């Protein structure tokens, strides 16, 4: 079994530019909508103008921080990721948009170089779900929050009924079954917190109280199904699936089968912009320290 690229910084380095181009825009991109949900579910409108310190863990190219600075203008954002390339791309977006209140650091979310009890809110939008040790990551997010019964965490995880994770799962499982001669299922780290009860239990186990798990939906919009392959060719999730296959024949089958299965789901087109709507669901886990 090959080591998973999804848990390495260089695995995510390779897809930073692609994420910034296709998904994480400096204003409103696909992941940004889920980041907005996390912000709205955890920070009350009465606190918008307050000076706060907000930590964005495993920030990627920064959808939460980039949007958050537009709403929480008096707050300081600390955006961290263990991928130097992700931070490099985010730094470029910060400079291009003349943003002054985001501080960036290359940092492992399982070992944050941040003082105890110093953060008002901490977030991870589809980042912590890839950590080798979920509990360790949550403990770090708990540790840095202020102990005032108001500081909160918000973590976004993909759900099993999201279009893309379903297509990846069905494609790799079918090919692994062909390879192994018996039914085989590949574990997607993107689904590490896709069980609502387990997600809640994880948060409570590290000390969070008043834990809630909210399911939200936003579609990924694309022009055509075939556009998905260039979008994900450098993504470690895609690479990890390919790496599970032992022959070039099976590896070459992946893209074609992926497209066939995706098309078989018959995603609908928006009447507004004629783009395909890929239904995408997330659990947003909220907890208070």
From TrEMBL:
Any one Pfam family here would be Methyltransf_25
Q: What is the lineage of its organism?
A: Eukaryota, Amoebozoa, Evosea, Eumycetozoa, Dictyostelia
InterPro entries hit by this protein: Methyltransf_25, SAM-dependent_MTases_sf
Q: What is this protein called?
A: Methyltransferase domain-containing protein
Write down the superkingdom of origin: Eukaryota
Which GO molecular function annotations are given, in alphabetical order? methyltransferase activity
Q: Which residues form the Methyltransferase domain?
A: 54-148
